[in-house]
Amino acid sequence: MTTAINQVTPPASTLAAMPALSGIEVCVFDAYGTLFDVSSVARGAQDALGDQWQSLSDLWRTKQLQYTWLRGLAGHHADFWQVTAEALDFAMATHGIDDGALRDRLMQLYLKLAAYPEVPDTLQRLKADGMQLAILSNGTPAMLSSAVHNAGLDGAFDAVLSVEEAGVFKPHPSVYQLAVDRFGVPAEKICFLSSNGWDAFSAKAFGFHVLWCNRFGQVQERIPSVPDGEIVELSALPAIFGHAKA
């Protein structure tokens, strides 16, 4: 079972129940849904989408992920920008929307994703404690650079790693290997953070320590390997790692 931590600074009794995470040298974050709020895209176009914005956003995200998995299985890789556009085309067609200008607007908004509120302070605190930080994402280098800059996170990360270096999407093990290779440390010295359950469980199967940032109250996946712990938002991290060092 995972251990839930709901507080920004968890009480000592809750922290004591967390698995030992001492020896962690690198925190690696998924980007979309973990650091950056993907729903902020359609929400930013509510004036055009009206009350369809949430359902379109949800379907867009679902198809985006499905297409990465299907392309990976079929060996038909295309970068995340193309996949994101194709998923949007499906979502818009499903909702009966035929508007090229709106499509272009939504794609440009995807380059300007909002970070979740706790992200900047959390990263700053971790970095001040000497933790190395990285992003490991399906996004293209250009997409990730734009998101990081828009969120005011320039300089926060020691590495921003894209699956384009591996030529395949998550959860292929070669993607998680990118972090091991970049930092030159074994997988057990890396803590991986993702809000996507399938990503968190797969990263644990690879060999990382994993904290699942379960922002959306998802149930556990029924796939191999269970994350070391479960948190509600990233603000719990400095206390967790501080406790491990104590």
Radius of gyration based on Cα positions: 18 Å
Succession of helices and strands: EHEEHHHHHEHEHEHEHEEH
CATH architecture title of the largest domain: 3-Layer(aba) Sandwich
Figure out the total of helices.
11
Largest β-sheet summary: 7 strands, parallel
Would you tell me the overall average pLDDT?
91
Output the CATH homologous superfamily of the largest domain. Answer: HAD superfamily/HAD-like
N- and C-termini, Cα separation: 24 Å
- Text of the CATH class of the largest domain: Alpha Beta
Q: Which secondary-structure class do the elements indicate?
A: alpha/beta
Query: Any idea of the CATH topology of the largest domain?
Result: Rossmann fold
- What overall geometry do the principal axes of the alpha carbons give? globular
Query: Which range does the strand content fall in?
Result: 5-15%
The tally of structural domains comes to 2
Strand arrangement across the biggest beta sheet: 1-9-8-7-2-5-6
Instruction: Please tally the β strands and state the result.
Output: 9
Summarize the amount of helix as a percent range: 40-55%
Low-confidence stretches: 1-17
